[in-house]
Automatic annotation (TrEMBL):
Coiled coil: none annotated. DNA-dependent ATPase involved in processing of recombination intermediates, plays a role in repairing DNA breaks. Stimulates the branch migration of RecA-mediated strand transfer reactions, allowing the 3' invading strand to extend heteroduplex DNA faster. Binds ssDNA in the presence of ADP but not other nucleotides, has ATPase activity that is stimulated by ssDNA and various branched DNA structures, but inhibited by SSB. Does not have RecA's homology-searching function. GO terms for cellular component: cytosol. One of its GO terms (molecular function) is ATP-dependent DNA damage sensor activity. HAMAP family: RadA_bact. Residues 352-453 are annotated as: Lon-protease-like. Residues 67-216 form the RecA family profile domain. Gene3D superfamilies: 3.30.230.10, P-loop containing nucleotide triphosphate hydrolases. This is DNA repair protein RadA. The keyword Aminoacyl-tRNA synthetase does not apply. SMART domains: AAA. A motif (RadA KNRFG motif) lies at residues 253-257.
Length: 453
């Protein structure tokens, strides 16, 4: 008899092996290698079946174009990210780090939907029902239309859906629910795939939207197989530093709306609150202008936000000067320090440099380069800019200021907030931008700065 050999395949990247291993040799994912023969055995010998008239393929021109109807969840910032609201029959995945506030947000969504008359089923697989009830009482999320169940078995959860017949289902979280039809422990790739696919199929068959909570790994990706992101209709990322109260919800995938919207929230003692106009969260409210600060207009999705960049320059007491940043890219700050020294004559190589944003926001786009450079120059010269000045632009290694995306929207938002002096790509070069900025802040005794640049 011929010897039967098994082939094992990675569910993440498709890497194959003749023996089982705990970690994929290609993508280095743990627990993703499964027996390929078991998954393909059911596909052998599949015979075609006759298709009735109701399921027969039709020309695309004969398919009715039904409009996707969104119904508002009651939280405007969450609806903004979803593209107008929750779509019936949609599977929505909300991912984020543990403890960032995902359960608090979805409990608020459940209470708002229940207050509108919808029957909501909240399934908690991580906490007990009494724990969720205490949090709901603290945040004011109590409502008789909100049904609560503490279950970890997928079959029991499906039975709860059949019995309750809800208009909205929330499962918290997919990594703690298990199915008897799949091998492995809860949270493993096979279990997460089985649970997510079953819940997605139920949402499509019953026309009920299901919100699924998913945790992320240390590198920020969703825990479990990447197939999980392809199974659902919407993938939202819940971001925020647990040391600050500000939270962001971003849409990474949305079949019913845009993927460049951002919702702003603030964690309070009474739960989570919307921040419809976050323009004042990322700026200090001091009276007189302070040296080492500059305002930029950053884009968070489609929303333009004013962000204050702060810089501090002090003499270094160590052979290796410190470079400490918070909220900005450290490598970008190092590049800007080199450009300032080479192209503008501002030498900071022997000084400790500290750069930070106000409010805990993180800026990764290059549009904040000019504001960082102006803040560093202001800190080195101990000269402050007026409150009406803002800077927008990307700086090249040659010192040229390049235009950035959504320049008109940024400029419009700057004018709306009272920034009448805008330093941007029209300056052409970093030296000219420094002249304009210091010219706006200079007095009669400060004219010697022009000679320095």
């Amino acid at each position: 008899m011929a010897r039967v050999t098994s082939t094992f395949r990675c569910t993440e990247c498709g890497w194959t092996s003749i023996k089982w291993v705990g970690r994929c040799g290609e993508c280095q994912t743990w627990g993703s290698v499964v027996d390929a023969a078991a998954s393909t055995a059911s596909q052998r010998g599949v015979a075609p079946i006759a298709v009735n008239a109701d399921r027969a393929a039709r020309p695309i021109t004969e398919i009715a174009a039904d409009s996707v109807a969104h119904w508002p969840s009651g939280i405007a910032e969450f609806d903004r990210v979803l593209g107008g609201g929750i779509v019936p029959g949609a599977a929505i995945l909300l991912s984020g780090e543990p403890g960032v506030g995902k359960s608090t947000l979805l409990l608020e969504v459940a209470s708002r939907a229940a207050a509108q008359g919808a029957r909501v089923l909240y399934v908690t697989a991580e906490e007990s029902a009494s724990q969720v009830r205490l949090r709901a009482q603290r945040t004011g999320a109590m409502h008789p239309n909100l049904y609560l169940a503490a279950e970890v078995d997928l079959a029991v959860i499906l039975g709860q859906i059949e019995q309750t017949d809800p208009q909205l289902v929330i499962v918290d979280s997919v990594q703690t629910v298990s199915s008897s039809l799949s091998d492995g422990i809860a949270g493993g790739p096979s279990q997460v795939r089985e649970v997510a696919s079953t819940l997605t199929r139920v949402s499509k068959d019953r026309g009920v939207p299901i919100l699924i909570v998913g945790h992320v790994t240390k590198d920020g990706s969703i825990a479990g197989p990447r197939l999980l992101e392809h199974l659902v209709d919407v993938v939202c990322q819940f971001e925020g530093d647990r040391q600050t109260a500000l939270r962001f919800v971003r849409a990474q995938k949305n079949r019913f709306g845009p993927t460049d919207e951002v919702g702003c929230f603030e964690m309070t003692g009474d739960g989570i609150a919307e921040v419809p106009d976050p323009s004042g969260l990322f700026m200090s409210r001091g009276g007189a202008p302070v040296s080492g600060t500059c305002i930029t207009i950053s884009m968070e999705g489609r929303r333009a936000l004013p962000v204050e960049i702060q810089a501090l320059i002090v003499g270094s007491s160590t052979p290796q000067p410190r470079r400490v940043v918070n909220g900005v890219d450290s490598s970008r700050v190092a590049m800007l320090l080199a450009v300032l020294e080479r192209r503008a004559g501002i030498r900071l190589g022997d000084a400790d440099v500290y750069v930070s944003t106000v409010g805990g926001i993180k800026i990764t786009e290059p549009g904040a380069d000019l504001a960082i450079a102006l803040a560093l120059a202001s800190a080195s010269r101990e000269k402050s800019y007026p409150h009406t000045l803002a800077a927008i632009g990307e700086i090249s290694l040659a010192g040229e200021i390049r235009p950035v995306a959504s320049a008109k929207q940024r400029a419009s938002e700057a004018r709306r907030l009272g920034f009448t002096q805008l330093v941007d790509a029209e300056s052409g070069h970093l030296r000219e931008a420094l002249r304009l900025a210091f010219g706006a802040a200079s007095s009669d005794r400060d004219r010697e700065l022009d000679a320095a640049f």
